[in-house]
Amino acid sequence: MNSDELLTCEEVAARLHIRPSTVRRWAQDGRIPTVRLTPKVVRYNLSEVVRAMQEGRQPQGVSHE
Fold first, then answer.
1. C-alpha angle with apex 48: 46 to 51, nearest 5 degrees?
2. Distances (CA, A) of 14 to 4, 27, 36, 64
3. Which residue segment(s) compose the domain that 24 sits in?
4. Is there a domain that residue 63 lies in?
5. Is 64 among the domain residues?
6. Of 12, 27, 40, 50, which has fewest CB within 10 angstroms of its CB?
7. Coil vs helix vs strand at 7
8. What angle do CA 6, 37, 47 make, to 5 degrees?
9. Could you tell me how far CA 6 lies from the centroid of its own chain?
10. How many domains are contained in the chain?
11. ∠ CA(14), CA(23), CA(46), 5° rounding?
């Protein structure tokens, strides 16, 4: 996978082993970055999401090894 590849919410959730609703909530809360392609289409750069989580923007109690 290209590190700049844009993924759907479901694809990010599958790779992080979490629910899509969690990805959406984190995005709405500003905990992970999004790329808005159109007003209704949102994508995620997995490396940027992981970086945001490593920087401590993830919710407490969630750990990713």
1. 110
2. 17, 16, 20, 13
3. 6-57
4. no
5. no
6. 40
7. strand
8. 25
9. 10
10. 1
11. 65
- What is the reported pLDDT for 65? 45
For residue 5, give the amino acid letter.
Answer: E
Measured CA to CA in angstroms, residue 2 lies from 6, 40, 49, 62 at distances of 9, 24, 14, 26
Residue indicated by tokens 């969690």: 22
**One pLDDT digit (tens) per residue for the chain, 65 residues:** 566 789 999 999 999 999 999 999 999 999 999 999 999 999 999 999 999 999 875 454 455 44
pTM: 0.77
**pLDDT for res 56:** 73
Q: Which tokens in the block code for residue 53?
A: 């989580």
Q: Is residue 1 part of a domain?
A: no
Residue 62, in any domain of the structure: no
